Amino acid sequence: MKANPVLLLLPMLALACGWAPAQTTPTPTPAPKPHIADVPQPEQPGPYNSTTSSSVGSSPLTVAQIAEYQKRFEEGYALEQQGKLAEARAIYDGILAEQPNAKRSLLEAGKISFKLGELARADDYLEKLHEIVPDFPEAIELLVQINQALKRDVRVELLLRDFRELHDSGKIPELSQSLCFVRERIHLDQQDIVISQFFDYTQDPNTVWMAEVFDSGGELKRRLLLNYDPATTQALRAKDAKYAGTQVFTWFEHVIKDGQVKEIDAYLQIFALPDYQKFRSAMFVILANPPKPIYSAPVDAPQH
């Protein structure tokens, strides 16, 4: 018997979606060695320091000065890990007042501002970092989310273009090996929605966007996916020449019980890729009022 395509969908979604390694250890000191150091920095030859970057043409910092900046950064980072975000940012701001190109301080100050909902301020920090290090994935990913929240659609599209080009270039292996990135974070009263965008939906697992719903305690409760269906697309095109440009997409939901995916429900089929805003609107409709599945299958069903 031919294998059911629903049962074969998304075998890779258990993999981490983001480009970066596992989350930073909560140990406050010493500060973690930032992965930003892996990005080529032609403007600063020699060993990279995690907190400082002297301007071109300025006198290089002494060993003692670097040690002092490192100590201050670690103090800020320890406060950040303790949840004292405003206090931590004040220390980063102090470093940036003296060293405006301090990359790690720009990154952490931007992340703090984003967490605090101060989007314009977060954008300022991270745009500066992006200007200094254009090929730093974490900065681009955060800028996508920030500009999405600020409804700067043109800026989002430009960032997405740069992100795809960087992903496809192979310059950063960790990024090139990743499937997707976080496009948007939506904070509601009792739950958060994290929407991930896949770099290439024509490749396995053929997902375009994935929306995951978490409760106030951070537990995953629902997962919606819009998937490209290459087999149905090819069959439809072969059937009639008028469908030569058609692409078939299907909405799916992973039914989650006790933290585990127990069932995959197929909902609606559409015949053209919607833009992001239409996907987002449909997502809210499905979350509020799920349609009757056109097909359901338990994930542990035997395959033939």
Describe the structure.
The protein is of the alpha+beta class and 304 residues long. Helix content is 38%, strand content 19%. It has helices at residues 63-81, 85-98, 103-115, 119-132, 137-149, 153-169, 173-176, 230-239, 276-288; strands at residues 180-187, 191-198, 207-215, 220-228, 249-257, 260-270, 295-298. It has a 7-stranded antiparallel beta sheet with strand order 1-2-3-4-5-6-7. The chain is elongated. It starts with 62 loop residues before the first helix and ends in a 6-residue tail after the last strand.
Brief descriptors of the model:
304 residues, alpha+beta, seven-stranded antiparallel sheet, 7 strands, elongated, disordered N terminus
Topology:
Layout: H1 63-81, H2 85-98, H3 103-115, H4 119-132, H5 137-149, H6 153-169, H7 173-176, E1 180-187, E2 191-198, E3 207-215, E4 220-228, H8 230-239, E5 249-257, E6 260-270, H9 276-288, E7 295-298
Antiparallel strand pairs: 1-2, 2-3, 3-4, 4-5, 5-6, 6-7
Helix pairs in contact: 1-2, 2-3, 3-4, 4-5, 5-6
Q: What's the Cα radius of gyration?
A: 22 Å
Apparent shape: elongated
Our count of helices gives: 9
Helix content: 25-40%
Mean pLDDT: 83
Strand content: 15-25%
Largest sheet: 7 strands, antiparallel
**pLDDT < 50 runs, ≥5 residues:** 1-16, 18-57
Oligomer: single chain
The string of secondary-structure elements, in order, is HHHHHHHEEEEHEEHE
Structural class: alpha+beta
The beta-strand count equals: 7
> Which strand order does the major sheet show?
1-2-3-4-5-6-7
Cα end-to-end separation: 6 Å
